[in-house]
Amino acid sequence: MTWIKELFGVEKPVIAMCHLLAMPGDPGYDSAAGVAGVVRRARADLLALQEGGVDALMFSNEASLPYLTKVEPVTGMTMARVIGELLHEVKLPFGVNVLWDPFASIDLAAATGAKFVREIFTGVYASDFGLWNTNCGEVVRHQQHIHAQGVKLLFNIVPEAARYLADRDIVEVARSTVFNARPDGLCVSGLTAGAETDASVLAKVKQAVPQTPVFANTGVRLENVEQQLAVADGAVVGTTFKRDGTIWNEVDAARVKALMERVRSIRQR
């Protein structure tokens, strides 16, 4: 797990989601507030997360529902503008996730200097967004072509709101993904954002690929963070950091501090 300590500076890092408001073209976009409104909200959340003591950040277009598996160009362009306006205030390692387009995610990382991306890189799924196919070979070759080899790739192997078309056990998926695609890390999720990652599934994946970092990707809360980090090599946290634990609310710095204090105590044991 050498790269985790090198990149984040700690073992078992907490990567905090900086959820962006809807982008131009998205059904939920606030055209009256414009992109400036997206920047204002992102800045407030960014500062609250950093004040709360998280280890890293990940910017995503969480409010771009319903998601596309190939996003419109304006989405990545707008995210690049938002992140660019905030870069001088970003004090932590950060990643990006353009939901759910791996090419756009890697492009955005290359444009902004992000150190990692999280995406669906492998598999074929039946999902709420239609038939969801991937081509990992094309994606990693694209990564090479745009000279983004240094960007770490976190593979979400339990996509939210989707299921493998084939009847495959998660242990089989983890092992074959690591062998065939050589991910830098695996992410294990619940059904949707904010839904707790099944600890037994997390444990099975970690046991199957002990040399590959495994992250709890959804539903980590104050009440379960010790159990999740007992297995996982890190956690991606979004919803629990929001006011009242509601995903679309703004980040609550007090909730961030409470969870991070617990995490630090766990690391010291």
Automatic annotation (TrEMBL):
Pfam families tied to this protein: BtpA
Protein family: Belongs to the BtpA family.
NCBIfam families with a match to the protein in the record: thylakoid_BtpA
Record protein name field: SgcQ protein
Organism: Ornatilinea apprima
Phylogenetic lineage: Bacteria, Bacillati, Chloroflexota, Anaerolineae, Anaerolineales
